[in-house]
Design brief:
Length: about 375
């Protein structure tokens, strides 16, 4: 098998799974219980939270565990809009967000909030002048992803934060860092709120993290009992938290070295496939090497994906193109409908091997020319 869909999800690493199993078997108590078993679970959970807080140089109380980045994004956007509706009803997002952000925006619009979409330049970088001009006294939130999930565009969060705070010091800044974490260095200190997910960094599915600076006031979107966290009541998922902490510690090692390796793989793929007719590489100087997006101009992406799957090569498409819709990210960068219709995403990891890429290229070079031009 050649798995090249790491941006969709990653396999759970053995060490992470072992942490999960140990916490499940040996720590059966509810951390909210007062008795010894509860205290034992709570102690384990708190040490995992402390490890995460130390990794990011943040406070333990600034961490909320969620079911994934989708829930974290909901908490950030809905929670800050509800908490600040007396100050304003305007929020700004980029044109390169994950669909979950746009779905939340649709909901916020339906309850009276106004959304502005900030422009980007032709390389995908946020248009700073446009951002400045959009920020108003009633702008309560700006949400811009650290790395776009389709084309891998990386945004300079620190600079964006400075622009936002200079225009309106009350405006909150949230970033969906789901595709950045474990691939490039990120700092929660560049933002007021951030979303990440464990299953993108060889952790288990079903747990995410929501970071909120302690100065930020939010309205909870979930209500219930449990003392651990005001934003996420209920019984904490101790084994998932322990496993997530392990996955994070492993994910943040040797980032530069790993990124350079992935960059070499990315360059090898581009050198080989750009020799083929009828495809366009969607990559700009701001794309991280882990995400390589290609438009097949004459082949349906799903046809190609399934043809490659016959040989156990697993690639991604954008969720939109399977239903015939246009890729919003490709439209935002290239403004080309044809290009936005047929994209595939090859996503690489530091665990991808050179041998896998060589074999992938052989399959690509033999399958693609046979399909090229067959589309009716
Ligand atoms: N944001 C981004 C940028 C993503 O890539 C994803 C996953 N595709 C999500 C949010 C949603 O994450 P989750 O599956 O953990 O809810």
């Amino acid at each position: 098998m050649i798995y090249l869909d790491y941006s969709a999800t990653t396999p759970v690493s053995y060490d992470v799974l072992e942490s999960y199993l140990r916490a499940t078997k040996d720590f059966i108590g509810n951390p909210n219980s007062l008795h010894g078993l509860g205290v034992k679970s709570k102690t384990l959970m708190n040490s995992a939270i402390k490890q995460i807080a130390d990794l990011f140089n943040i406070l333990e109380s600034e961490i909320t565990f969620t079911s994934g980045a989708t829930e974290s994004n909901n908490m950030a956007l809905i929670g800050s809009c509800l908490a600040n509706m007396k100050t304003g009803n305007h929020i700004i997002v980029s044109k390169l967000e994950h669909p979950s952000i746009y779905k939340i925006c649709e909901y916020l619009e339906s309850i009276g909030f106004t959304i502005s979409y900030v422009n980007n330049d032709q390389d995908g970088l946020i248009d700073f002048e446009d951002l400045k001009s959009l920020i108003r006294p009633d702008t309560i939130l700006v949400s811009i992803c650290a790395v776009n999930s389709e084309v891998g565009i990386r945004q300079p969060l620190k600079m964006i934060r400075q622009i936002i705070k200079k225009e309106n010091s009350q405006t909150l800044f949230h970033s969906d860092m789901t595709q950045a974490i474990g691939k490039i260095p990120v700092s929660f200190h560049d933002v007021d709120m951030a979303s990440i997910s464990a299953h993108k960094i060889f952790g288990p599915k079903g747990i995410g993290l929501f970071y909120k600076n302690s100065r930020v006031k939010l309205m909870p979107i979930i209500y219930g009992s449990g003392k651990s966290n005001d934003l996420k009541p209920g019984t904490p998922a101790v084994p998932l938290i322990v496993a997530f902490s392990k996955a994070l510690r492993l994910a943040l090692i040797d980032l530069d070295k790993r990124e350079n390796f992935v960059k070499r793989l990315n360059e090898k793929i581009i050198t080989e496939i750009s020799k083929l007719d009828g495809l366009v590489i969607n990559q700009t100087k701001y794309s991280i090497p882990h995400i390589l997006n290609i438009s097949l101009m004459n082949v349906r992406p799903e046809t190609f994906i399934h043809a490659m799957e016959e040989f156990e090569v697993y690639l991604g498409t954008n969720t939109a193109c399977a239903s015939g819709d246009l890729s919003t990210s490709i439209m935002a960068i290239y403004n080309d409908k044809r290009r936005a219709m047929g994209t595939i995403r090859i996503s690489l990891s530091y665990i991808t091997t050179t041998d896998e890429i060589n074999r992938f290229l052989n399959y690509f070079k033999s399958i693609y020319p046979k399909l090229n031009g067959l589309m009716d």
